[in-house]
From TrEMBL:
GO terms for molecular function: structural constituent of ribosome. GO terms for biological process: translation. Residues 17-52 are annotated as: Disordered. It comes from the Eukaryota. This is Mitochondrial ribosomal protein L37. GO terms for cellular component: mitochondrion; ribonucleoprotein complex; ribosome. The lineage of its organism: Eukaryota, Metazoa, Chordata, Craniata, Vertebrata.
Length: 440
């Protein structure tokens, strides 16, 4: 039998501290006693470490705190004095604490729940559907699918040009070995939009559109007993002179009355929204009156965060797309039809596309009603085609096995149907306009 010395750490050492030259010793559990398992018995005095420690001034009446205020310099064994607040004698906005929330003119006792561009919804699309009183339809609407199936609505050498756009965004534009998301995601979206704009020679109405960046939208509505708002900057908005026509018929709109919205009790639908008491209930599309491109067409979202905890997951990105598509549609409906809640004679349609550089989310939202307080009656409609891969991955360096190139650098798993859907949403509205012009 070989006896080896056992090292026990002294008092104060944790499981992560050890003496030099000795192995790490794990912290041992407390002994099982009635006090450690069930707590102190009733009426027994608490240990000294468990007792409520009051300040010395409260324990000894009449004791004054000795500070270093009279010495005019810091003394470590004396208490820090509490000096009166220095007033500069004039108002400096850079160093002003500002008024309290209760003193602000826009302060209200009723709480408002705000959805902004960094809101991540816990339940994703299900939560957004309840907040916007919307019925979900899988896939894209038939009007958009008919544009995809038409061979005349495709680009010349489409697959080659799309792959060149992907290579330009991820390989050619940078000197880094592996570019970051914040650099290649916006470039990829710009290149794909440039390919879509080349169809303007075939459809002249495409030239009557405008891209808007850094605009701010604001829309407010009541949902049951809560006030909700969508406001702030969001994605890139494509505006058009003419609005999009409804994609659902009147019979389909009336059939939504029988749809029951899904709830997720006991989770509150407003669990992720920001609670504010200083707010203004207003509806603003982000553009002045008389803007030549007044109607929202498509909203583009680019999720380009490099840090994974900050990045939106696909489900959260779809919920964000739905909320801001609803916000843009509601703000436009309030401008056109007033603030009274009612079923719209001409529904407002807004499209949305989101991507993180490889996976695309497609959405078509139709606002049928502004009566959102109760869950009864006509619902809004949304079509979502989720998780559409444009390509599987990109190899930046060749894969060499035994001095033979087995996997050359390039794009792997390219899927052409994704860009066809991207192009179809861009052409939506222009194809119908050209058809009506030919009929006339």
């Amino acid at each position: 039998i070989v006896l080896r010395p056992c090292y026990l750490p002294p008092k104060g050492y944790s499981s992560f501290t050890r003496a030099p030259g000795h192995p790490r010793v794990p912290r041992r559990p407390l002994p099982r006693t009635p006090w450690t398992t069930r707590g102190p018995p009733p009426g027994a005095p608490l240990p000294r470490s468990w007792q409520d420690k009051r300040p010395v001034q409260e324990q000894i009446p009449g004791l004054e705190q000795v500070t270093y205020a009279g010495k005019q310099y810091f003394v470590p064994w004396l208490a820090r004095p509490r000096l009166p607040r220095w007033e500069r004698g004039w108002h400096d906005p850079r160093h002003s604490p500002g008024p309290r929330y209760e003193a602000m003119p826009l302060y209200k006792e009723r709480v408002c729940y705000v959805c902004h561009q960094r809101t991540k919804m816990l339940e994703g699309v299900r939560q957004a559907l309840w907040l916007t009183k919307t019925k979900l339809m899988e896939g894209l609407p038939p009007k958009v699918l008919s544009i995809i199936d038409e061979p005349a609505n495709q680009l010349e050498n489409e697959d080659e040009r799309v792959q060149n756009a992907i290579s330009h965004a991820r390989v050619w534009i940078t000197t880094e070995l592996i570019p970051k998301r914040e650099s290649y995601c916006p470039v990829l979206l710009e290149d794909l939009l440039h390919l879509c704009r080349t169809m303007a020679s075939k459809y002249p109405s495409l030239s009557k559109r405008m891209l808007a960046r850094d605009y701010k939208v604001a829309a407010a509505w009541e949902r049951e007993s809560s006030i909700l708002q969508v406001r702030g900057m969001n994605g890139i908005l494509l505006n058009a002179i003419n609005p999009l026509l409804p994609v659902a018929s009147k019979d389909e709109i009336l059939a939504t009355e029988n749809h029951i919205l899904e709830t997720f009790h006991p989770i509150s639908p407003t669990i992720d929204l920001q609670e504010v008491n200083v707010y203004e209930e207003r509806h603003d599309t982000g553009f002045r009156e008389g803007y030549p491109y007044p109607h929202p067409h498509t909203l583009y979202f680019v999720e380009s965060a490099n840090v994974r905890p900050v990045r939106f997951r696909p489900e959260q990105l779809r919920a964000k797309m739905l909320m801001f598509a609803f916000g843009n549609a509601l703000a436009k409906a309030k401008v056109l039809y007033g603030d009274d809640p009612k079923v719209l004679e001409h529904p407002v349609v807004v499209q949305s596309i989101g991507t993180e550089g490889r996976i695309f989310q497609f959405m078509v939202f139709q606002l049928n009603t502004t009566d959102l307080a109760s869950s009864d009656g006509v619902k809004n409609l949304v079509w979502i085609d989720s998780d559409q891969y444009m390509y599987d991955y990109i190899r930046y360096l060749p894969g060499i096995r035994k001095k033979v190139v087995k996997f050359p650098p390039g794009i792997y798993g390219y899927r052409p149907d994704t860009f066809k859907k991207f192009l179809a949403l861009y052409l939506h509205g222009a194809v119908q306009d050209s058809t009506q012009t030919q009929i006339l």
